[in-house]
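User: My collaborator and I are trying to settle a disagreement about how two of our proteins should look. Neither of us wants to argue from intuition anymore, so we agreed to look at predicted structures for both before our next call. Could you fold the first one, then the second, and keep them clearly separated?

Assistant: That sounds like a sensible way to settle it. I'll keep them separate. The first protein:
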Amino acid sequence: MTAPYFTRDALEQAAALVHTQMPPTPQYAWPLLAEAAGCEVWVKHENHTPIGAFKVRGGITLIDWLRRTQPDVPGIVTATRGNHGQSQARAARAAGLTARVYVPHGNSVEKNAAMRAFGADLIEFGADFDTAREEAMRVAEAEGLFPVPPFHRELVRGVATYALEFFAAQPDLDAVYVPIGCGSGICGTIAARDALGLRTQVIGVVSENAQTAKLSVEAGRMVETETARTFADGMAVRIPVQEAFDIYSKGAERIVAVSEEEIAEAIRLYYTATHNLAEGAGAAALAALMQERDRMRGRRAGVILSGGNIDAGWFLGVMQGCPPKV
């Protein structure tokens, strides 16, 4: 049997650190979601963090690790579609570090504003996340800044604390649906499940327009895609991460692809059933559960509402029945 990615003690230490800056997020079973899905549905509300998304946890743990292990580093550089950048800017600036953040052209206006408000030096570069990421890593090496990749062990240890909270509160879930971008969320969920010795199935979710993780698992090797054009920007990734793939390819039960229309319908359902905002990636897990409602009928399902940072114009369009075109 393969050893868990983290021990329970390592995750509990991470949770203790995270909880010095934010309380555990709630998990609720919403009756209107259960009515729609035909099963008990527990929502882990990662939209209720200091940045409105789960990524805040990884910023706390990674920057703490960086300050302890590399105290002379003057700052960080990273790439993002928004939530990871908010997390890193928030934690880095609080630690007295500079934070240079690369985003692709045409990135979310409101996420960009939030990153700047947290102190990021924001730079637009390239047509998509993966191009911005390559530039960020080049600049890190050239200028002596610490390169924060989209997937790092200390990031995952922090992110896994949401799953530790969720499984501690609801250890008997049959399945948990988790969106996949670069993979920190699903890998953290798998790590927490394994550290606690639970049997819960972890089901990954991708956009039909950004299927690199699903295609890679099906092929048994890393598969890049030419584009990743989805309004669920947190999942808009063309190039998989090897370390993440090594975990979710073995630890996930399956990976489900959802359409832009299914994601938009899940955003509407979250609003009408719970009055919570969900961005595209945040609604993807519920979209997958709704797609699989016959399979899950009568069971106990968890869904990760990973973030609620959707631009106002996009949200209004979704509520009017028009998924954003990207």
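The second protein, kept apart from the first:
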Amino acid sequence: MTSAGHGSGLGRMRRCGGCAAPPAACWIRATLLIAILLPAVAAADETAVAPAVIRFGISNVGVGGVPFVGGHVIGSAHAKGLLEEEFKPDGIRIEWLFHKGAGPAVNEDLAAGKLDIAWQGDLPALIGRSAGLPTRVLMAANRNGITYLAVPSASPARSLKDLVGKRVVMFKGTASQLVIDRILAQQGLSERDFRFVTLEASAAATALTSGDVDAVWGTLQLFDLRDRGLIRFVFTTRDPLPAADQQWASSQSLVLATEDFVEKHADLVQRIITVLVREAAWAGDPAHQDELFALWSKSGTSAGHYQEEYGGTSLVRRLSPLLDEEFLGGLAGGMHQALALHLLRAEVDLQAWCDARFLKRACAELKTPNPWLR
């Protein structure tokens, strides 16, 4: 009986994975192993499977809403179809999403999961990150942008101070707001001294020429109205500095991506940044200036106007992709200014936000010496 009982007990035991153990114990071990391995397998699968489309957001539109922009290498890369060419062998489509609502509209699409990567001005990018948008800054796109203040040709205003108390357009929440606020401060003024109206570029131009507003802060997109005699500039950041120890504020923009896209598709991110860095090196070469302006003119702003805006400056510097001391200093200064103006919810950790590894590798792989370090 004893022997039979002992044999019956052994009969109830099962061998699982090479070990003798009760069934319950085997299932517990298997379940724990699956729980440990499945997340790693899923993550590997997600990383390995390339998306069918990469969605690239642009915080601007061309004149009349055309889906082209100029003034940075993302615009010329788009006009040339460089990213499409890069990813065609993989069957990956590039979808370009142009935003009439500028940076704030890009933030909305980032929050809604409609974008993977985007070109954006510094202030809306900071606002998004401060509000919790999980993004990473990958490279600079443009710096030292020039700002203009336009009035109708018949306006009696001859200076910025002549517009105190008047209706002035400033697209709030965009990179231009920080620039304008710095300019006002240098003149002993602030936003409270004007009746500011928020309008996007095309609506602002219409409001100015129809007399609905007294002035508009804008960019070289205003040159066409000036050439037609409809407006004139009463101030630009090309004007003489107010004092020897000051410099006019300038705008800057950047390329960022969602953290999810960076973590799942680091290989694709590297290829995108490598293409854009090569384009930045090409665009900064004076020998390519005419071709570059012709590409940018697809935006509806003439090549001649780009020549006027950029011709007297160093394109290699203005289009530098480097996250260097100059660019990061501007980003830090903009953040502190935005905090003081209560435009940000919280301070942004710039070191954690900026991810320069893709940029560094792209620069190292350039066939010609890095033009931004000469």
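Some points you might bring to the call about the second protein. The first strand starts at residue 14 and ends at 16. The chain is about 45% helix and 15% strand.
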